[in-house]
Amino acid sequence: MILKTIIFSTTFLAITACLLWSSAFVGIKIGLPYTTPLHFAGIRFFLSGIIIVPFAGSFKRYAKTVRTNVKKILVLAFLTMFVQYSLFYLGLNMVPAALAAIIIGSGPLFIALVAHFSMPDDRLTMTKLSIFLLGLSGIVLVSLGRNSFSSVHGASIIGIILLILNNTISGVGNVIVARDGKNIPPLILSSSTMIIGGGSLFLFSLLVEGIHTGPKPFRYYAALSWLSLLSAAAISIWYILLKRPKVRVSDLNFWKFLIPVAGAALAWIILPDEKPALVAISGMSIIAVALILLNIYKRRQNRKSVLLQNPET
């Protein structure tokens, strides 16, 4: 019973989703040399959506739910799959690796800012902001410990803007799922958005990147299979958590600071050209401290809330 409670707890599931996402860095690095970014992402997410379909209930219920909520699903698919990943890959190619990693790693802070202005019960206090900035400082150190920092040129400015927009749209997507997608079962929502968004991204890639034919090595298909499976699991878990009544968008997304940490650790283990650096390990320690501080802060806030509701206790 205790084990079941732990496994289905928000903290455990959030960490699981982030650990799955962290392995994407290695999978992308293995598979991307054999194709182009948007093409690869489009196939990956389309397959992820297909994988979820058998677990989302009867096909009749699935189709009826999609028809009933088609506008919300199309908006979410367009924003979180098509626009977000187009901005992500376009920006990534214009910005130095270390700077790109820092901006992408700052995603939880941008999501918290979006939630602050969109969700009345998810305000960003000064204490919470300070903890987020502490976590972000850890991301900076992890990023600088893995990549050399080169100069920023004209194209980099555009890339920085694109990556910031990517982070902002990620926040909008999280808010939409938490606030407006409550009547759509999470597995149907994650599956349908990935099928529509991934398919659209793939078709768009044919226009801008051309058609890719010819045989590919086993390592490409292994990477694509893993990326599709992890996206299916991680995004579905995230949608389930966003729909939980007492889960705040900003608090949940703070766990995403773990993604670059675990991604760096996996890269050090799996990829021969990746080696740990002291500055990156220092950044990981700072992120761990920030996570502990946030959980202490959340517990104190929960106690205050209970006392306000039951002053006699």
Counting structural domains, the number is 1
What is the radius of gyration computed over CA atoms, rounded to a whole number of angstroms?
20 Å
Main sheet?
none
Structural class: mainly alpha
Identify low-pLDDT runs. none
Terminus-to-terminus distance: 29 Å
Q: What is the global morphology? A: globular
Give me the count of strands.
0
Helix content: over 70%
Strand content: under 5%
Order of helices and strands: HHHHHHHHHHHHHHH
Count of DSSP H/I helices? 15
Mean pLDDT: 85
Keywords for this entry:
single chain; 313 residues; mainly alpha; 78% helix
Description:
This protein has 15 helices and no strands. The protein is mainly alpha-helical and 313 residues long. The chain has one domain (21-309). α4 (37-52) runs antiparallel to α11 (186-208), α4 (37-52) crosses α12 (218-242) and α9 (126-146) runs antiparallel to α15 (278-309).
Fold blueprint:
Blueprint: H1 2-7, H2 10-22, H3 24-31, H4 37-52, H5 59-68, H6 70-92, H7 97-105, H8 107-118, H9 126-146, H10 154-180, H11 186-208, H12 218-242, H13 249-254, H14 258-270, H15 278-309
Q: Could you write a compact summary of the structure shown?
A:
This protein is mainly alpha-helical. It has helices spanning 2-7, 10-22, 24-31, 37-52, 59-68, 70-92, 97-105, 107-118, 126-146, 154-180, 186-208, 218-242, 249-254, 258-270, 278-309. Helix 2 (10-22) packs antiparallel against helix 12 (218-242).
